[in-house]
Design a protein that fits this description.
Strand content: 15-25%
Order of helices and strands: EEEHE
Strand order of the largest sheet: 1-4
Number of helices: 1
Largest sheet: 2 strands, antiparallel
Shape: flat
Distance between the termini: 5 Å
Bound molecules: zinc ion
Number of domains: 1
Number of strands: 4
């Protein structure tokens, strides 16, 4: 017999974003409640610890727009779903670290 555990989270359980430096492993946690207005993306361009580039590449490519859109979409989804006005609940499936298998 094989069993599999599925893990789901509700959008309201997403309370912030976390950026971890791939070089020095310093992490920055930005709670949604901490920036009611706009996220200051310019501060995310370099690691606050080792000063390596984070959200912008030397060729000008940037992850800033995608990060901002992700935050805005989670917030708008939470607003849309609050109060149970719609006839469905929405959860996001997250990857299980190591699926348990029983035989
Ligand atoms: Zn760093």
């Amino acid at each position: 017999m094989t069993s599999e555990t599925k893990k789901f989270i509700e959008p309201k359980d997403i309370i912030g974003i976390r950026l971890e430096c791939t070089h020095c492993k310093a992490a920055l946690l930005l709670p949604f409640s901490g920036f009611a207005g706009l996220l200051d993306l310019e501060r995310l361009r370099i690691c606050p610890h080792c000063q390596r580039t984070w959200t912008q590449l030397p060729d000008g490519a940037t992850a800033e727009t995608a990060i901002l859109q992700c935050v805005e979409k989670v917030r708008s989804l939470n607003t849309l779903l609050e109060n149970g006005r719609y006839g469905f609940g929405l959860t996001l499936e997250i990857k299980d670290d190591e699926p348990e298998k029983q035989s």
